[in-house]
Design brief:
Length: 505
């Protein structure tokens, strides 16, 4: 599991580490690690043209000392000082003595156009708001690979919010601990590949603000049959979704639960014909949820409608003593009667996208992580806030970020699939927040597999998909996680045509 910290936590740890080892030691460790990752980005350092955009303070100092390292390896390095009167004096002196050239923003455009690599040392973790002149104009001109120092300039290090001009990095080299703004909000797409450099803060860091699930974590949460298991002991999921108007919603939720994989799925709703036709494995009941038989978890809401009949079904399901996934139309109904969730003893998982979240709790705002955590504490349930970097917040303050989301999943019905997958994980038992986060991970990975994407968080490769493609790719996602459950590594999978693909998760 990858731990993520707030700026305040990093600052406090840095202060303690500095008291022990001195600030120069931390900066030199950071600079060396930064130079190594600059080299990895370039491929070949000798003869490379590197331009460093240098702002005020320690962030610029890290970049300048890294420039010294690159100069020693034969690169031609030029530093553009955006705040000459506030530059890190020790860093710029060492850089100049090592043979680096120094200039200001005037005339920087030509150097940027010819650069093989740009190092973003403009603003560090203390920055806020959009970039100001002249930095805002310069970052718009970046066309070559960019390595950001600690956090891309213009990205809020705590929230990932981008208010205006900001650097879009190829790679972000962050120091001491991963900052929350690199894994949530717009910060995800601006950060590129995130590399962590250990500068010795570990002994001084508090409990992480949020955790990012890795393949090994999800592998441990996957429902795996044991000797002696049967369809009942593996978890029975009840699905109360769909309607005569939206039969497909029921088909997709049931499919997600079946493929996830539950031991049995019981369906109770108005789309019985469509569910029977598509999923003969499901046990279909022509009646209400109470008539479906015993289940270990319920999924309710997708395509259900919001009339009095739909409300009565939501009330009936939430009145049970088993975990419930509340999705789509059921969220709209709960927004009018939050006490239906607050009064529950059994776990509840709410799965809103931003507009549904606003109906429930008000606007998400700039701080998606903070909003999800406050909402979970307010309603006493796990909140799965959908997005490219889906956030799962537990009412006790724990939070997870899913790293496998992709724009390819932004299509009708994929949320219905996720609800079914989450229901299967909840029926298998265990911590509801971890189960919901694992469901989001598997769902996102299945989306990448269905799209044929090399990188599950990017749409640079792949092709459009529909929701049923995600259902069909769930077994492949599960196999990939089980066989590669060691963390961020290369995943291989085979599509239905027998072609092999790979990407890093």
């Amino acid at each position: 599991m990858k731990s993520v910290w707030s700026v305040a936590q990093i600052r406090a740890a840095e202060a303690k580490a500095t008291a022990s080892t001195g600030s120069d030691a931390l900066m030199q460790r950071a600079a060396y690690g930064l130079s190594i990752h600059c080299g990895h980005t370039l491929g070949r350092v000798y003869g490379a043209r590197v331009v460093m955009l240098i702002g005020a303070g320690n962030n610029g100092g890290d970049a300048l000392y890294a420039g010294v390292q690159l100069l020693s390896r034969g690169a031609a390095v030029h530093a553009v000082l955006l705040s000459p009167d506030r530059v890190h004096r020790g860093g710029v002196l060492a850089f100049a003595c090592a043979g680096g050239t120094v200039g200001t923003a005037d005339g920087a455009a030509d150097r940027l156009a010819r650069a093989d690599l740009v190092v973003d040392g403009i603003v560090g973790i203390g920055g806020s708001g959009p970039l100001r002149a002249p930095a805002d104009a310069l970052v718009e001109q970046l066309r070559c690979p960019v390595v950001a120092v600690d956090v891309p300039s213009g990205v809020d290090a705590d929230t990932g919010h981008v208010a205006g001009a900001a650097v879009s990095a190829t790679r972000t080299v962050t120091f001491g601990g991963v900052k929350a703004g690199l894994v949530v909000g717009a910060g995800v797409e601006h950060s590129g590949r995130v590399e962590l450099v250990d500068i010795g803060l570990g002994p001084y860091l508090d409990h992480p603000l949020v955790s990012v699930l890795e393949a090994a974590d999800v592998a441990g949460l996957l429902p795996v049959p044991r000797p002696g298991d049967d369809k009942y002991s593996r978890g029975v999921v009840g699905v109360a979704s769909g309607s005569a108007t939206y039969e497909g919603a029921a088909v997709l939720s049931v499919g997600g639960a079946l493929r996830a994989k539950a031991g049995m799925v019981r369906y109770a709703g108005s789309a019985t014909h469509a569910v029977r036709a598509r999923w003969p494995e499901a046990v279909v009941t022509d009646g209400r949820p109470a008539d479906a038989g015993r289940v270990q978890a319920w999924v309710i809401g997708s395509g259900l409608g919001t009339d009095d009949h739909a409300r009565s079904l939501v009330v009936e399901v939430l009145d049970t003593d088993v975990p419930v996934v509340v999705d789509a139309d059921a969220l709209t109904l709960v927004a009018k009667e939050k006490q239906l969730v607050r009064s529950r003893i059994a776990p509840t998982v709410l799965t809103p996208h931003d507009r549904e979240f606003e109906r429930l709790f008000g606007p998400v705002g700039e701080d998606r992580l903070g909003a999800a955590r406050r909402a979970a504490a307010d309603i006493g349930a796990t909140v799965l806030l959908k997005g490219q970097a889906t956030i799962v917040a537990a009412p006790d303050g724990r939070a997870f970020v899913n790293p496998t989301g992709s724009g390819w999943l932004a299509t009708a019905g994929t949320g219905d699939v996720l609800a079914g997958v989450a229901g299967a994980f909840l029926a298998a038992g265990g911590d509801p927040a971890a189960a919901a986060a694992a469901a989001a991970y598997v769902h996102g990975l299945a989306g990448a597999i269905a799209a044929g994407a090399r990188d599950p968080m990017s749409t640079a490769t792949g092709a459009p998909i529909i929701a049923i493609d995600v259902v069909d790719a769930l077994p492949a996602a599960t196999r990939s996680i089980r066989s590669n459950g060691g963390g961020w590594r290369l995943f291989h999978f085979w599509d239905k045509n027998g072609s092999v693909h790979a990407f890093t998760v």
